[in-house]
Write a structure and sequence with these properties.
By secondary structure, the protein is an alpha+beta fold. The protein contains nine helices and four strands. A four-stranded mixed beta sheet has the order 2-1-3-4, sandwiched between helices. The radius of gyration is 18 Å and the shape is globular.
């Protein structure tokens, strides 16, 4: 294939299904006989969340979803089990519930410097597994430095909100597409796939996109 299949993924770095969906999609790419490029787009699930939420993730879920703490714990246990099935470790006892806008700004900074995919993985692992605070600029700059980005330049970009317009543009595009939840995958500007679907679903979509490319006649210049 001369041109790789383009995949745009709207997601949030505190979305447990987004990390699971990422692993399932990566497995699909590994099975797909072709090249794929991935761009991560910003989607804030809860933009009204404070940087330092007072309470546990169970408290947050209980308040956000309008369920009892016991029901919230069941939700956490379920998603943690599914995460484990794709090789991820979720430690909700360590998680700092927070606002993710700065993390999204940093992802655009990383994109501008050719390391967005690496940063996305680093932020998800930092949040769900390591209990790092991804709502604070200092912590985010450190994480940027860990994957080879200039931590000082990252800190400056966050302080100046240099990439906030890009975050807002992604959110506006999500509204235009009618995206109401994440992860949401847009494949070759043709297909939209919502949720952490099974790997086979992603493989089929990639194959269909590739087949349609081959069947589309090339216009003469």
């Amino acid at each position: 294939m001369s041109n790789p299949i383009d995949v745009q993924i709207w997601s949030d770095v505190q979305c447990p299904w987004c990390y699971i969906g990422k692993r399932k999609f990566e497995a699909a790419v590994a099975q797909f006989d072709g090249e794929v490029t991935v761009t991560y787009r910003s989607f804030e699930l809860a933009p009204d969340t404070p940087v330092d939420f007072e309470g546990t993730p169970i408290d947050y879920l209980s308040q956000r979803k309008g369920v009892t703490p016991e029901q919230a714990q069941m939700m956490v246990d379920r998603v943690s089990g599914i995460a484990e099935s794709v090789g991820l470790e979720y430690h909700y006892d360590r998680i700092h519930q927070t606002n993710t806008v700065l993390a999204h700004e940093l992802l655009h900074f990383a994109k501008a410097h050719g390391k967005q995919v690496e940063l996305k993985e680093r932020l998800l692992r930092a949040y769900f597994t390591e209990g790092r605070h991804i709502g604070r600029a200092g912590e985010l700059a450190e994480l940027a430095g860990e994957i080879g980005l200039d931590a000082s330049a990252a800190a400056t970009a966050l302080a100046e909100h240099a990439y906030l317009p890009d975050v807002k543009a992604d959110m506006a595009q999500a509204v235009a597409y009618g995206i109401q939840g994440v992860p949401f995958f847009v494949i070759d500007d043709r297909y939209g796939i919502s949720g952490a679907q099974e790997t086979a679903t992603f493989v089929a979509a990639l194959q269909q996109a590739a087949a349609e490319r081959e069947s589309t006649p090339v216009e003469a210049s």
